[in-house]
Amino acid sequence: MAVCRDLWSRNLLALSLLFYFLLTLDVHARPANMSSSKDKSPATKDENEILPPDHLNGLKMEMDGHLNKDFHQEVFLGKDMEEFEEDSEPRRNRKKLIEIFAKVDVNKDRSVSAKEMQNWIVEKTKEHFKEAMEENKNSFRAVDPDGDGYVTWNEYKVKFLASKGFNETEVTDKIKKKEELKLDEETQEVLESLKDRWFQADNPPADQRLDEEEFLSFLHPEHSKGMLRYMVKEIVRDLDQDRDWKLTLSEFISLPVGTVENQQGQDIDDDWVKERKKEFEEVIDSDRDGIVTMNELEEYMDPMNEHNALNEAKQMIAVADENQNHRLELEEILRYSEYFTGSKLMDYARNVHEEF
Question: What burial class does residue 71 get, using C-beta atoms within 10 Å of its C-beta: 0-12 exposed, 13-18 middle, 19+ buried?
Answer without folding.
Answer: middle
